[in-house]
């Protein structure tokens, strides 16, 4: 699926966010074509396959959120305007419980920490960006499985607001000479996410 930011057209996008989009395009494509994510957007989704996809997302989501949270605290970027968006893991857990799935919290040592504010921009790009596709997925899941199916993780509120706050954060916390660090962190985060999904196949 193409990443079209029609809603944000006309709004200025910081150079680092443009570089992130360009350099992770193929990584995103590999992710959204992954069988465990593709089945979410294809006709024929069943409650069982939806549950399997959510279970597969649990580990990479936990790792990425933990990486962002711990890094933001260590870098002194965890409060005020700079604070990361609230975690979505509790919503994913609530959905899994509602679906009757059994899961256990992954090892927190698996989280990859950002050593600089630019690297945190890269991690947050992947995490906050993943909310945008979630809106599309939530709509399709409800269409196929009905309004009653637990879908709080994908339907988490205000993805566009969080995205705009991320863009502002990226502008203030990634000097031009550090864009490569942000790109490297985002690429690694995409690779980690993909590897964890592969491991769930
Ligand atoms: C089936 C799964 C997925 C689909 C269908 C999908 C779809 C999309 C769509 C349609 C957008 C653009 C939305 C908008 O601008 O309003 C988007 C943006 C984005 N998605 Fe995904 N996505 C999926 C999974 C993921 C995952 C798992 C991640 C990361 C872990 C991710 C990271 C991103 C990022 C970073 C952006 C922002 C791109 C930019 O504007 O620079 N996506 N996605």
Topology summary:
Elements: H1 15-23, H2 25-32, H3 35-41, H4 47-74, H5 89-98, H6 117-145, H7 159-173, H8 179-199
Helix pairs in contact: 1-8, 2-8, 3-4, 4-5, 4-6, 4-8, 6-7, 6-8
The protein binds protoporphyrin IX containing FE (HEM).
Number of strands: 0
Total helices: the number is: 8
Helix percent reads 55-70%
User: Would you tell me the overall average pLDDT?
Assistant: 94
Bound molecules: protoporphyrin IX containing FE
N- to C-terminal separation? 21 Å
Stretches where pLDDT falls below 50 for ≥5 residues?
A: none
CATH topology: Heme Oxygenase, Chain A
Level-1 CATH class name = Mainly Alpha
CATH architecture assignment name: Up-down Bundle
Beta-strand proportion: under 5%
Globally, the shape reads: globular
Describe this structure in words.
63% of the residues lie in helices and 0% in strands. It has a single domain, classed as Heme Oxygenase, Chain A (Up-down Bundle). The longest helix has 29 residues. The model has no long low-confidence stretch (mean pLDDT 94). The protein is globular and about 45 Å long. By secondary structure, it is an all-alpha fold. It starts with 14 loop residues before the first helix and ends with a helix. It binds protoporphyrin IX containing FE. Protoporphyrin IX containing FE (HEM) binds next to helix 2, helix 3 and helix 6.
């Amino acid at each position: 699926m193409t990443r079209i930011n029609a809603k944000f057209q006309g709004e200025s996008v910081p150079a680092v966010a443009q570089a992130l989009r360009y350099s992770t395009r193929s990584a995103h494509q590999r992710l959204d074509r992954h069988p465990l994510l593709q089945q979410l957007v294809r006709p024929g989704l069943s409650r069982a396959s939806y549950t399997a996809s959510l279970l597969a997302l649990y580990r990479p989501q936990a790792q990425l959120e933990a990486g962002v949270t711990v890094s933001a605290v260590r870098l002194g970027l965890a409060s005020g305007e700079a604070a990361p968006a609230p975690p979505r893991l509790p919503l994913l857990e609530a959905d899994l419980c509602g679906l009757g799935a059994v899961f256990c919290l992954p090892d927190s040592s698996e989280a990859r920490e950002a050593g600089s504010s630019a690297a945190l921009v890269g991690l947050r790009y992947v995490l906050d960006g993943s909310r945008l596709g979630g809106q599309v997925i939530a709509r399709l899941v409800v269409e196929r499985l009905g309004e009653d199916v637990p879908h709080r993780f994908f339907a988490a509120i205000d993805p566009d607001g969080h995205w705009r706050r991320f863009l502002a954060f990226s502008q203030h916390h990634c000097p031009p000479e550090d864009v490569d660090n942000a790109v490297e962190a985002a690429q690694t985060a995409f690779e980690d996410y993909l590897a964890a999904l592969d491991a769930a196949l």
